[in-house]
Amino acid sequence: SSTKVVEDMDEFQESLQTIPKKVNWDGRWLCYYNNFWCPERVLKSTIFFQRNFKAKDSDIILASIPKSGTTWLKSLSFSIINRKKCTIPESPLLITNPHDLVRSMEYGLFLNSENPDLEAFSCPRIFSTHLPYHALPQSILNAKCRIIYICRNPLDQFISLRHFLLENSGEDQQKALPIDEAFELFCKGLYPFGPVWDHAEGYWNASLNDVQKVVFLKYEDLKIDATSHVKMLAEFLGFPFSPEEVENGVVEEIVKLCSLENLKNMEVNKNGVVVKSPTVKFKAGSYFRKGEVGDWKNFLNNSMAERYKKIMEEKLGKSGLAF
Ligand code: A3P
């Protein structure tokens, strides 16, 4: 079935001939695997992650669809967990891109190895993934590990994704579709790890079913009040702030350290490259753009937005989720 995790790699190689494929707006291929659009270049690493990852109860998994605030969530979670090991002035975030501190499963660890040695990571281990909830390795669902999901207004996510893909597409840029054609595909859910309505709803339902395991965040809420979210996340992760820390402004210090303004202006994030594998690299600067709520209004007209709103209402109507 389309939701079954691949068990035999040889069989899988054969089935690759018949797997539905579509070209994304940046000219790269997407494969319809496990009921989502998996970028072809991380299809194998996704399967290795699903088959080989062994979760520990102490693990922390940061989940998102690309361009929903992953970088921010990585910076905040890393800082919360490691604040006793290194104070803010010593934070590795000052000299390291957040994506090199919290590695991605399918876009990193399992892209470089079928079965990477993750035992050497100090506990709690923090990893990230873009897989939808239903496609996570069984081991994550079985263990007591914690999952933080972040989502964002999909129109802003679309615009953010478009900038990111164009900035990193290099020579392929000529193949990129104009924005209105890209938007057509977006309305069909055709983009990396889409459709977003399924993606978000999976984590939403999981967060309702098990509040100890999954927390569901919205980028826009974090923008309104990062401080209370950082406190909440610290509790959820089992690293609550002491009254002294709160009094001494540690929460605000973390918020400031992880702010877009601050991270964006660091040398490592301006000129560096995030190397996911020898062939998959992204410009460090492309992870930090405007971070504005409602930036879509500068690129999409109202009738496009209305159309998208209807699609979302139709898809999410019964779930109680709106974003
Ligand atoms: P924009 O393109 O709208 O500016 P992701 O981290 O999932 O790749 O998402 C990238 C988006 O998050 C970009 O949005 C980027 O500017 C924004 N972003 C990155 N770091 C951020 C931070 N520390 N605080 C707020 N937004 C951030």
UniProtKB/TrEMBL annotation:
One of its GO terms (molecular function) is sulfotransferase activity. Its EC number is 2.8.2.-. The keyword Ligase does not apply. Pfam families: Sulfotransfer_1 (PF00685). Keywords: Transferase. It is an enzyme of class 2 (transferase). It comes from the Eukaryota. The keyword Transferase applies. Residues 57-320 form the Sulfotransferase domain. InterPro entries: P-loop_NTPase, Sulfotransferase_dom. Belongs to the sulfotransferase 1 family. This is Sulfotransferase. It comes from Coffea arabica. The gene is LOC113705968.
